[in-house]
Amino acid sequence: MISPTGRPLVYLAMLGLSAITPAHASLALTQAGIDDGFTLTTFLSGFSALYGPLAQGNLPNGQIITGSRVDTRIYVFNDADGQTLINAVSATSYTCATFNCNFAMATAGGQVYGAQVQGGIYLHFFADGSSVPVPNLDGAGLRDNLGMWGNPANGHLITSSNEGLVDIDPVAGTFRVINSRVFPDGVTVSPDGTTAYVEVAGGIQADNIATGALLRSFTTGHSPDGTGVISGGPFNGDVVVNDNDGTVGLLDPSKANGDPNLFVIIATGGTRGDFVSPDLKNGTLFLSQDEQVARLSCGPDCSIGSVGSVPEPATPLLSAAGLAVVLLIRRRSA
């Protein structure tokens, strides 16, 4: 069966649905987020809350891969906003092998890797949605916990596992334990590859990737989960945080706990924030909610989760550039 646009409707039939429940999430920028020059659009929506949360990876061909736990399918999409499941380029079935068979995913060295959370084996994904195990890790007993990120400095995976926070070389299939006492949820890596920001027990901590040493702990007053570090621009080094309470915050690691500018809410009204994933093609950040995947941009001359400056994606700016710069400088100096 073909839609009026020529898209196959087989995915709806596979789900046993005649229609997909519209999204009810209303994640929107706060005035602080607008003033800071962020933009927020919707990458994927129009599905039941049962499909989220979702993590994404950047395939070598420029498409986006993600997984849905309810119908246990790996979906591939073109990298464009305003899509629903019906727009998927392909859908590949997988077997639920863990208690929570959502897929954590990350792009490392130009390839996509992932694992079912809370016990899944690490997999290397391909453009058609198929996958093969990362060599040697299954035999070593390494299993995923809840989060992973690609290290832009060397193409490794920094991931939460049953061994703690680990550094995986996915090509060689080897790993090194960074910290055996840390079993975080959200994981992200600084653009220089030296620091992992991880969610632990309702807070965020910065760990040295080389030594495992705790560098800082941050209290946000919210419920942090997925995180992504900004590179370039006035907020260089700040961390975007997707919160379980439906907010999105901006963490400034240079501020002390208790400083009102340590953690500023830049978006509210979401359902439940969880995974985040960088779009390395344009420097934006995917923010999962229960019912949609939003896309956050930090504006021109910066990116989230990747190195260097990237162009602003083709989305309307929400404030004049000159005013945004003035407000950014004012806040950073506060």
Structural write-up:
With 334 residues, the protein is mostly beta strands. It has one domain: Neuraminidase (6 Propeller). The protein is 8% helix and 38% strand. It has 4 helices and 26 strands. The strands form 6 sheets. The chain has a 6-stranded antiparallel β-sheet. Strands 2-25-24-23 form a 4-stranded antiparallel β-sheet, with no helix packed on it. A hairpin with a 2-residue loop joins β16 and β17 (203-208). The chain is globular.
Secondary-structure map:
Elements: H1 10-15, E1 28-29, H2 31-35, E2 39-44, E3 56-58, E4 64-68, E5 73-77, E6 90-93, E7 103-108, E8 111-116, E9 123-125, E10 131-133, H3 137-140, E11 144-150, E12 157-161, E13 164-169, E14 174-179, E15 187-189, E16 195-200, E17 203-208, E18 214-218, E19 224-231, E20 239-243, E21 248-251, E22 263-268, E23 276-279, E24 284-288, E25 293-297, E26 303-304, H4 321-332
Antiparallel strand pairs: 1-22, 2-25, 3-4, 4-5, 5-6, 7-8, 8-9, 9-10, 11-12, 12-13, 13-14, 15-16, 16-17, 17-18, 19-20, 19-26, 20-21, 21-22, 23-24, 24-25
